[in-house]
Amino acid sequence: MIKAVLFDMDGVLYDSMPSHVRAWNETMSSLGVNASEEDFYMFEGRTGHSTIDILFNRTFGHGATQEEKKRIYEQKAKRFIELESADPKPMPGAFEVLKKVYAMGLQRVIVTGSGQASLFDKLDLHFPGMFDKNKMVTAYDVQYGKPHPEPYLMGLEKSGVMPDEAVVVENAPLGVMSAVAAGIFTIAVNTGPLKDRILKDAGANIIFSSMTELANNIERCFTRPLR
Length: 227
Ligand code: MG
Hints:
48% helix; alpha/beta
């Protein structure tokens, strides 16, 4: 019996990945760090600090200091806000999915690696009545972040449900790995440029091409035995 749906935020509820990728790319290349757009789609779900460490190690052979990570993440977050012009775009179909989940009487919980306050502040505007701010797991709550199971385990704890009473909706390979490692049935929504195969290999149980496609099939997903 499903009682809660745990939603990733970027690339699931918001069509924010192109701006994240551009903000990361510009920030990192201004520091002489090598990275490609695909890197940021593959790193999606990691905390910003973890992403910075990986890229520093790859380019300079050592991680970044706490101070550098803080400063660089702030630079990236500031650039992201400029690109979104304080007007984040909800993902087409996301509100339909949420309304159906609400109508089924299931809890809705956000589990994100993001620390982007500019999006958290807009949730109630774009998805009124859908989320409880006390039932969110963000970059500020976790120590390890995705792909570690920690964020989704915390999401289960906040929902008060067991792994087999929850479903996760994710768009990123590392997010899928985190959810699967937490023992939760995982729906992948491939809203970015990566191949479906990468999400399948990460362990996704079902893959849809958009939130609209998920909205149109959600009864089928949640009413038949999932395993
Ligand atoms: Mg995502």
